[in-house]
Design brief:
596 residues; alpha/beta; 6-stranded mixed sheet; 12% strand; binds adenosine-5'-triphosphate
């Protein structure tokens, strides 16, 4: 797959094909080279190219240039591969171990790596010549040792990131040995950057090797690019062309490796992030294609046809009434969102979603994982990932068109607040809670620092924080997850917005704190008359605080109903199935028994 995508990249294709030809040129030397590379014939001395039987002529010692070039290519590639192998074995192994196990091992490995890195590589190789003698293979193996710290550092840093991933913890809990976790999970995460780095290291290795040979520090009995370059250089006034061939091969090989390295980086990066943001022209083309294939995306019929998949939708109440009532605060109509795939197509993940949220109302957006709840909420807030393409639809807030970036910036944070899912990762660890809240509030409200502090401390008390002053001056790591969520709720309501969008606000919290946070949202909503769009996959949360519910499935709304009717008499079979599966085993307060 990666190879396929590499070959689809024009630079990757050119680089790979040229590199393959160079490798074949070297590999075929033993049976395709027309002559013995060291056989000298007097009549061939400085013979020009195309001399009969000698395509590239002879050098100053009467040896066949083509045969020497072929053997030199094999020698160079072999020595560089040895260098790469040594660097990979030492650097990657030590980086994996240091990053994964940490502690004393990491300290020692880092110390050794830093010391090796501080050595002047080229000078050391020249000095070592007197000890190891004229062996290019040994010199390059030593160079491999010198370059290993670059792999060590890269891999260690990557492993430090991966080590904290939940799937690594899960593998540990599942009883996998450290060796299996490293080879199965950690190595997978680091291999792409290592492959990319290897192409650059190989390119540098070839240049260094040629440099050493040019200085006369290679094996004089074996043909080499650098050695051939030196010979030809000494003889440049007699046979100028002989400089060209090794120089061409050195340049072409290093250039191809850099091209392949760059292309690989693009390919692997794209694979990692699924797809990069599209060029505006490509977006326009995809929008046009989408319209053609889906008919008018404004039409209910089109929405239904996209979303159908055994679910009867709009007729059952998923669609918004056509008569837009005046107390509608937020209206999402026929929203279609897609993501570019790696083969430049578009995968739609939201298929014509329509919602209406009245002033002071709590609307739950519920559905299984991946049904498009967050994408819908993000499109209202204008925080969809960069790659996302909004293919159609309208989002209006109090009559204002939120597709207009200027309008969106004016209302976001001021009239629309946002409570995110992960409280801790949404607070910057380098600033105090108070600094972050004040910064947000003062960006939308023209008040002094002191006034902001007063208002926010009062608000922190209101959201149930016991010691608001201390919390105001605390750093995020000094407060608990539940407190952090309260802080974010305070931040969202501080500017007294008309609408709060809460994306799974209780998922990251433990059960008792969840109930408190839900009660807080409901209390604040009633106190301030705000509307709330609550994204959740939990019917318990819906039962607790929602007035109405929209159920989503596979990017489409399948049913919108008031909470009580949805629980007692869901219109759609899918809603019933979802209710059964989600209520099974979970404690849900019946909507009619919740505290107001
Ligand atoms: N950056 C992205 N690139 C490609 N596809 C994406 C991206 N972000 C989301 N999607 C896809 O969009 C679909 C809807 O995702 P969304 O996050 O809205 O689901 P959700 O209903 O909120 O699920 P969850 O409850 O698990 O968060 C999913 O299929 C997801 O794979």
């Amino acid at each position: 797959m990666t190879v396929k995508r590499l070959l689809r990249n024009p630079l990757g294709l050119v680089g790979s094909v040229a590199l393959l030809l160079i490798v074949l040129f070297g590999l075929c030397s033993s049976f395709l080279a027309p002559h013995d590379p060291n056989e000298a014939r007097l009549e061939l001395t400085n013979a020009p190219p195309m001399t009969s039987g000698y395509l590239l002529g002879g050098d100053q010692s009467g040896r066949d240039v083509l045969s020497r070039l072929m053997h030199a290519t094999l020698g160079t590639l072999t020595a560089s591969s040895v260098m790469l192998l040594v660097a990979l074995v030492l650097g990657v192994t030590s980086g994996l171990a240091a990053g994964y196990f940490g502690g004393r091992l990491d300290t020692v490995a880092s110390w050794v790596s830093n010391t090796v890195m501080a050595l002047p590589g080229l000078v050391l190789l020249i000095a070592l010549y007197s000890v190891i003698g004229p062996s290019t293979l040994t010199s390059m193996a030593v160079f491999g040792v010198l370059i290993a710290p670059s792999y060590h550092r890269l891999v260690r840093t990557l492993v430090l990131g991966v080590r904290r991933e939940l799937y690594v913890d899960a593998a540990k809990v599942a009883g996998l040995t450290d060796a299996r976790i490293i080879f199965r999970h950690v190595l997978r995460a680091v291999r792409a950057p290592v492959v990319v780095q290897s192409s650059f290291v190989l390119s540098a290795g070839i240049a260094i090797q040629a440099g050493l040979e040019f200085l006369g520090l290679g094996d004089p009995t074996a043909p080499s690019w650098g050695g051939m370059l030196q010979d030809a250089f000494n003889n440049i006034y007699v046979a100028r062309l002989n400089v060209l061939w090794p120089a061409l091969l050195i340049t072409a090989t290093t250039l191809c490796l850099v091209l392949v390295g760059n292309a690989l980086r693009d390919v692997l990066q794209t694979a990692h992030t699924q797809a990069r943001p599209l060029h505006p022209k490509a977006v326009a083309r995809l929008r046009a294609d989408h319209r053609l294939s889906a008919g008018s995306i404004e039409s209910e019929a089109a929405v239904r046809s996209i979303a159908s998949d055994s679910v009867s939708t709009a007729a059952s109440g998923s669609a918004v009434s056509d008569s837009v009532s005046t107390d509608v605060l937020l209206s999402v109509r026929d929203l279609v969102i897609g993501y570019p795939t790696t083969d430049a197509r578009l995968k739609t993940v939201v298929h014509g979603v329509s919602l209406e949220l009245r002033r002071g109302e709590v609307l739950g957006l519920v559905g299984e994982s991946g049904s498009g709840k967050s994408q819908t909420a993000f499109s209202v807030l204008g925080i969809l990932p960069r790659q996302a393409v909004v293919l159609g639809g309208a989002v209006t807030f109090d009559g204002l068109d939120l597709r207009d970036g200027k309008v969106l910036r004016e209302v976001r944070g001021k009239r629309i607040g946002y409570v995110p899912q992960e409280p801790m990762s949404n607070l910057d660890p380098s600033f105090t809670v108070g600094a972050q809240l004040s910064h947000g509030l003062r960006a939308v409200k023209d008040i002094s620092r002191a006034q902001a502090r007063r208002e926010l401390t009062e608000l922190l008390g209101r959201v149930g924080i016991k010691d608001p002053r201390r919390t105001f001056d605390a750093y995020p790591h000094q407060i608990s997850g539940g407190m952090a969520q309260r802080v974010l709720i305070a931040g969202a309501v501080a500017a007294e917005p008309d609408l709060i969008i809460a994306d799974e606000p209780t998922t990251a919290l433990d059960v008792t704190v969840q109930a408190e946070v839900l009660d807080l949202i409901r209390a604040l909503q009633q106190e301030r008359g705000m509307a709330v769009l609550l994204v959740t996959h939990n019917f318990g949360v819906v039962a607790d605080i929602c007035d109405r519910v929209s159920v989503m499935r596979q990017g489409a709304v399948v049913e919108t109903n008031d909470t009580e009717s949805l629980f007692h008499a869901p219109r759609e079979a899918y809603t019933r199935t979802l209710l059964d599966s989600m209520l099974d085993g979970s404690v849900v307060r019946e909507p009619w028994t919740r505290s107001a």
